[in-house]
Design brief:
By secondary structure, the protein is α+β, with helices and mostly antiparallel strands. It contains 8 helices and 4 strands; from the N terminus they run ααααααβββαβα. A 4-stranded mixed beta sheet has the order 2-1-3-4. Strand 1 and strand 2 form a beta hairpin. The longest helix has 22 residues.
Amino acid sequence: MTTPADVHEVRDPELPGRLLSVERDALLPLLRARGEGDFALPVAACPGWTVRDVLAHCSAALSRVVESRYDKDVFSPASNQRDIDERAGWTITEILDELDRGMTGAGPVIAKAGGPLDGLALGEWVHAGDVRVALGEPGAYAGAGLPFALALLAQVTSERGHLPLHADLDDADEPVRLGDVSGERPPARFIGDGPTLVRLYAGRPVDGASYELAGADAAELNIFG
C-alpha cells in the first residue's frame, strides 16, 4: 500500500467519493449476506445503538447530502437519533438499499461542497469499521479502503488545522503527514499500522495494539470527539 506523504496539501475533491465507492463494494455484499438477528447486535463504539441503528444513521446522513436536506441541527446527536427513529419501521433491505444509493451518489455532492463535507465520508468509513467489529468480521478500519481513508484523514486534519503528526506506518511505503503544516508546532510522531492510527483519530479503542506515539496524547488526536 502506498500513501503519498503530502497528498493533503492540495485537496482532492474526488477522494471522499472514491472512499465511499470502495467501501460500498466491500460492505454491502457482506451485510446483505447476514441474518436478521445480526442487525440487533450492539455496537460498542456507539453506546445504545445496534448495527441496524448505525446503518440507519449512515444511510440517512448520506441521503441528506445527496438531497441537500440540512436542518438547523443537522448531524447533531438529536438529529441523528430522529433519522434512526424515522427508519424504525423500515426493513433491513430498505436501509441497505438507501445506504447503497447514498454511498453511490454522495461523492459528487461532497466534491462540489469544497471541503466541509469531506469528514462525513471519513466518518461513514469509520462506522463501517464499527459495524465489522460488532459483527465479528475481520478487516475493521482496514481493507481496500484504508489507503483512501488515510489520504482523506490527512486532508481533513490539514483543513481543520489539527495538531501536526508524522506517521511512519508499517503498512505504507511512504510516511503520512497529518494536520497543520505551518510549522508552528513540532509534529508529533506515530509509529505503528494504519488501522491503529485510524482508531486513534476516530476515538476508537486500541487495546492490544502495538504502536508508539510521541509529542501528543492519544486523546488529542480524536477528530470526532
